[in-house]
Amino acid sequence: MKRRAAIAIVLLVLVGAGIAAFHYLQPGGTLAQFQGWVEADIVYVSPDEIGRVATLSVREGSAVEVGSPLFTLDDDLQRAAVAENEASVINAKQAYDRAQVLLQKAVGSQKDFDNAQALLRSAEARLNSTKTRLDRRRMLSPVAGTIQEVYFRVGEMVEPGRPIVSIVPPGNVKVRFFVPQANLPSIHIGDRVLIHCDGCRDDLYAHVRFISTQAEFTPPVIYSLEERARLVFRIEAIPEHPEVVRIGQPASVALQTSTTPEAVHAQK
């Protein structure tokens, strides 16, 4: 009975391995398969100065375009600074006009006129600076993409440099995987690779855009179905349909046997 049980276990293991191989080998054949995960270069949007969140125009999962409103901070101090500098500009302009009239009548000196002119320019520069600070209390989206996370809510105080929202542009989504040095000659910049992940479409492809020139040790967290070489090279590929994958999602990468036109062009 023990012998039969052992044989049954071995058969189950072999059948499981065969199913896995059939599942990952796509029609037409593949050159090699590697495991990786989905990553993204996230854009973090933070204020320039400390402030309290006044309004929040987005939530997690919201789609935004370039220039879409994201959030605003309280701006009482900035408005007061603008009003103060507007008054300074008016006073400086009056002093400049008087100095100019006196100079034309040969009553005032050139030095007094130059000083008045310099004070006017300085006041205008301070006004422009305070207007810029006021405008930046209302943050617009710098990129088009999807809101990944909202870190602060209305009423919370935010320090400068602390992100309030993060955005994932579609073009910043990538699949990162590692290739042993023995397989490195098989892949080139521009190659089209097949991506498989749970719940994803069967025809999800990506284009290789980065191949590390420096070897590194196999990362401690890697979704692998078999033994990996100790030294590997990091490779990144951009999915053709980034909207169907999720950041952190495990993925299998299959290198195709045929060379694509993009790869041929890239190798030239």
Molecular structure report:
The chain is an alpha+beta fold and 268 residues long. It folds into three domains: 26-41 and 170-267, Beta Barrel (Elongation Factor Tu (Ef-tu), domain 3); 42-74 and 138-168, RNA polymerase II/Efflux pump adaptor protein, barrel-sandwich hybrid domain (OB fold (Dihydrolipoamide Acetyltransferase, E2P), Beta Barrel), CATH 2.40.50; 75-136, Helix Hairpins, CATH 1.10.287. It has four helices and 15 strands. It has helices at 2-24, 76-104, 110-135, 261-267, and strands spanning 30-40, 43-45, 51-56, 63-64, 69-73, 138-140, 145-150, 157-158, 165-168, 173-180, 192-196, 204-211, 216-217, 231-239, 250-256. Helix 2 runs antiparallel to helix 3. The chain is elongated, with a radius of gyration of 31 Å.
Quick take:
The chain is an alpha+beta fold and 268 residues long. The protein has 4 helices and 15 strands.
Percent of residues in helical segments?
25-40%
Let me know the number of strands.
15
Number of domains: 3
Instruction: Give me the side-by-side strand order of the main sheet.
Output: 1-10-14-12-11-15
Please give the largest β-sheet. Answer: 6 strands, antiparallel, barrel
Q: End-to-end span in angstroms?
A: 63 Å
Q: Assign the CATH architecture of the largest domain.
A: Beta Barrel
* Secondary-structure-derived class: alpha+beta
Beta content: 25-35%
H/E topology pattern: HEEEEEHHEEEEEEEEEEH
Which topology of the largest domain does CATH recognise?
Elongation Factor Tu (Ef-tu), domain 3
The overall pLDDT, averaged over residues, is 81
- Please compute the radius of gyration using only Cα atoms: 31 Å
Characterize the overall form.
elongated
CATH class of the largest domain: Mainly Beta
